[in-house]
Amino acid sequence: MTEPPQAAEGPFDAEALERARVFFAHPVRFLMGAVQMTGLPPDDLPEVAFAGRSNVGKSSLINAVTGRTHLARASTAPGRTREINFFVCDEQLRLVDLPGYGFAKVSRGEKNKFQNLGRAYLRGRPNLKRAYLLIDSRHGLKDVDLEAMEAFDLAAVSYQIVLTKTDKLNARDVAQVTAETLRKIQKRPAAFPRVVATSSEKGTGIPELRAEILEACAI
């Protein structure tokens, strides 16, 4: 029998949460940015990737997970990330910031170029353990997000939904969007059956997301 989807916190006890906190307190560094598949680092470490619409808060979330302020640089210009950025955590795993999709202010040709780079990474990276699809909790799943989920499903890449900016909502609305998101992903073949509701500003859900990452990478 298929395990039913679970709500935000996940099955992590205090010890697992503390172990994850300590792990990400270890050195984390920016490794490189790649503009084509031939420029990727070796596939010798487990990787988790962060994807989402432009301006959904990927850089802020990566900074929150690692406990850094300026590791990943956020931009006020949507769609600025046009390469795949790699960050190394304690020389044991890599966090991967994929190009944003959605309302990027670039030409159609250039937009397709860096969006296709992200798709190529998902299809061709054997050490990718999980992708995290970031969804703005104020808006829920949009058509462009459903397209991304189709790409994950076709690539057979395990992905988990992370709701961002939950500090902009009250607790009841967070619970509602979480439940609605769980319902929509229930029959998705590659969707991981838990949703993590986060706020990079308040730190909500960040301990659970750290633990999810370590579990996905078997660290």
From TrEMBL:
- What cofactor does this chain's UniProt record say it requires? Mg(2+)
Q: Which organism is it from?
A: Phenylobacterium kunshanense
The task this protein performs is described as:
Necessary for normal cell division and for the maintenance of normal septation.
Which Pfam families does this chain map to?
MMR_HSR1
**NCBIfam families, alphabetically?**
GTPase_YsxC (TIGR03598)
| GO term, biological process aspect, one | division septum assembly
Question: What keywords were assigned to this record?
Answer: Cell cycle, Cell division, GTP-binding, Magnesium, Metal-binding, Nucleotide-binding, Septation
Q: Which PROSITE patterns match?
A: G_ENGB
Q: Which GO terms describe its molecular function?
A: GTP binding; metal ion binding
Cellular component terms (Gene Ontology): cytosol
Signal peptide (UniProt feature, chain positions) = none
What superkingdom does the record give? Bacteria
- Family assignment from sequence similarity: Belongs to the TRAFAC class TrmE-Era-EngA-EngB-Septin-like GTPase superfamily. EngB GTPase family.
PANTHER family tied to this protein: ENGB-TYPE G DOMAIN-CONTAINING PROTEIN (PTHR11649:SF13), MSS1/TRME-RELATED GTP-BINDING PROTEIN (PTHR11649)
EngB-type G domain mapped to chain residues? 44-219
Q: Which InterPro entries match?
A: G_ENGB_dom (IPR030393), GTP-bd (IPR006073), GTP-bd_ribosome_bio_YsxC (IPR019987), P-loop_NTPase (IPR027417)
Identification of the protein by name = Probable GTP-binding protein EngB
